[in-house]
Amino acid sequence: MRKMGVKKGDRVVGYLPNSEHAVEAMLAAASIGAIWSSTSPDFGVNGVLDRFSQIQPKLIFSVEAVVYNGKEHSHMEKLQQVVKGLPDLKKVVVIPYVSSREKIDLSKIPNSVFLDDFLATGTSEQAPQLEFEQLPFSHPLFIMFSSGTTGAPKCMVHSAGGTLIQHLKEHLLHGNMTSSDILLCYTTASGLMATTAESTPRLGASSCLAGVTAHSTPTGCGLAARKSITSYTLNGKKVEVAVKQIIAGKAVEQGGAFSNPETLDLYRDIPELQGF
Question: In whole angstroms, what is the distance from residue 32 CA to residue 11 CA?
Fold first, then answer.
């Protein structure tokens, strides 16, 4: 990012699933004082541009396709239109998420590059040294957006210091998280819920990421994690299915939608499962 000219205050965005790539890009941007924002691949072109056109990003990360309900959905045509609507973009980084890079055509997307090639520019002899930008408590970290149901989505800026305090409060006081815990974050990368996983390393804890548009189902996530996951952040629309599979956990943090009565009954009937 430094090599291509990203600096403090610039906006870096992701059009990504809730995956390790989103976390890595966000942390890299934060380390140099850039501001991160993201939307998920299920957003249409207008939904993305309604948000990103307001903040004029310099760099965008995206996948080439996603899998949902067992079916592959190409992302390239939407990405092409999004890039056309963001004139300040200097670079488009495409992450091979479903297919190998040999099967992906970048010719129609200007200033595009595969992730591996982008990373290689940071390992050359001319690459700048990795230095963490020293910034004030109130320096912007994230730009979130309202849902857009009452007009254009509205920007909401979250500071680095405020975000860290809020996350530590949720993890430590509400979730009783320790360094031995593993957080399963089942949500999209479009909102605040996904960011909670990015602060778990501050406590020595680990995160398990699962995007709603990924290869897995909420039931599958719960069953796979049952023996090791201790805390959960769940999208409210999916929690009715997932929470039934995670009785081995000790805490569930639910957001993004209202809980239905059945889910609330589960929290009441299972004393060892703390829901908030």
Answer: 11
Q: What is the CATH number of domain 160-275?
A: 3.40.50.980
Q: Is 11-142's fold the same as 160-275's?
A: yes
Q: Are 87 and 61 in contact (CB under 8 A)?
A: no
Rg of the chain taking only CA atoms, in angstroms: 19
- 161 and 30 Cβ atoms separated by less than 8 Å: no
> Which top CATH class is 11-142?
alpha beta
Q: Structure pTM?
A: 0.82
229 residue type, one letter: I
**What CA–CA distances, in Å, run from 219 to 102, 167, 242?**
33, 26, 5
Please list the pLDDT of the chain residue by residue as tens digits (276 residues).
999 999 999 999 999 998 889 999 999 999 999 999 999 998 999 999 999 999 999 999 999 998 887 888 999 999 999 999 999 999 999 999 999 999 999 999 999 999 999 999 988 777 777 889 999 999 999 999 988 778 889 999 999 999 999 888 888 887 778 887 777 777 777 777 777 777 788 888 877 776 554 444 544 555 445 545 555 555 444 444 444 444 455 666 665 566 667 666 666 665 555 554
Instruction: Report yes or no: 234 and 252 within 8 Å, Cβ to Cβ.
Output: yes
Can you give the residue ranges of every domain in the chain?
A: 11-142, 160-275
* Eight-class DSSP state of 271: T
Residue 11 CB contacts under 8 Å (≥ 6 apart), including other chains? 34, 35, 36, 37, 55, 56, 57, 58, 143
